[in-house]
Protein: Lipoprotein
Amino acid sequence: MLKNRFFFISIILILLISCHTTQENKITTKVENAVESIPEKVEDAVESIEEPAESNEISDQSEDIFQPTPFITKILDQLGVQPKQVYEQFVVQKVMPYDETSTVVVIPTVASQEYDWDVFTLNSYILVVDSETAEIKQQFYEKESWYSDAIRIDEISIDTANYNVTDGKRAFGITLFYIGASKPNPYNSTTISLFIQEENALVRVLDAFEINSYWGEWDMRCTGEFTSVGKVLIMDHNQNNGFYDIKVNVETTTMETFEKGEDDCDEKEITQKSKQLLRYYGSYRLYQKVYTLETESSCGLEIKLEGNQYYLKTSKREHTGIFVIKDGYITFQGLLSDDPKKEVQGSYDDDEIVIQNYGNAMNPFTVFGECADQKYLRLVNKE
Structure:
């Protein structure tokens, strides 16, 4: 009887231990499976978060970097220039209308920058390349060529007008348009540089000559004064040093705006025309005319005209300023006669200036006291 009870109890204990072990194994297995699955889920979650961020970063970078065309890429490879060095906005190209196998290309590279691109300096690559292969034929490079600040560069363009500067050679132009940031003091300007093709290089024959300008000052409502100067370049038949002169027709317009009544604004406009001459002396420069007295005098009066500027010298004075030619008379702005104080004026043609130096008893005046030995100062251009 006792043996049967002991056997029964032993069986129960064995069953209990077996159940406990099995349960423990199940729990352990579940825990291990759970622990193993956690890193996979966490890694998946981290990857799902990081992947979009990584793709966005690449997208942003690709937007900032200049993506050149295959044609421009070939040129950059020859120059050894990286796309990130290029100022993309001002890259321009134009097939020469008189030689379609050649293309003019302008590639500005960044020399320096400040204030988050508000102020920057550009190096200039001016190139003539093969229109099909992009192989460089001639090039011109200038370090720190163009500067942009409060008066900023707004546009660069290529001018292929008929600039036949010498026999068998035609120049092309690079124009830069600048614009000012001030609203009460508006300003803009356009300059042109001319280049000719030599065997292995481009040669600049005219450097940043201003062909248009505009400036003024006003009260932001109505009252103000403004000046506009426009210039047209015309090739001449006269040659100097193997290059044709360039005539410059100048039109200067001054405008004054003023209030008329309480709510109206009116304007008064004056337009004057003049001429300049660009002559070649290794490069094109404004031709300077020198006028000296026909009759010798101790006062040594001499007048030089260059562009719209005059330079006057006597034994007792020197003066410079702007001259205006109108209706056969030249006025030297800012130059005052001795008595009374009035702007000096004289008759004018291309080769002669005549100034009446003093008056008479009925109309007394003196222009240059140091030239009192001559009533009429006749100055001639002997060139």
Notes: Confidence is low (pLDDT under 50) at residues 1-9, 11-62. The chain has three domains: 68-146, 150-286, 288-381.
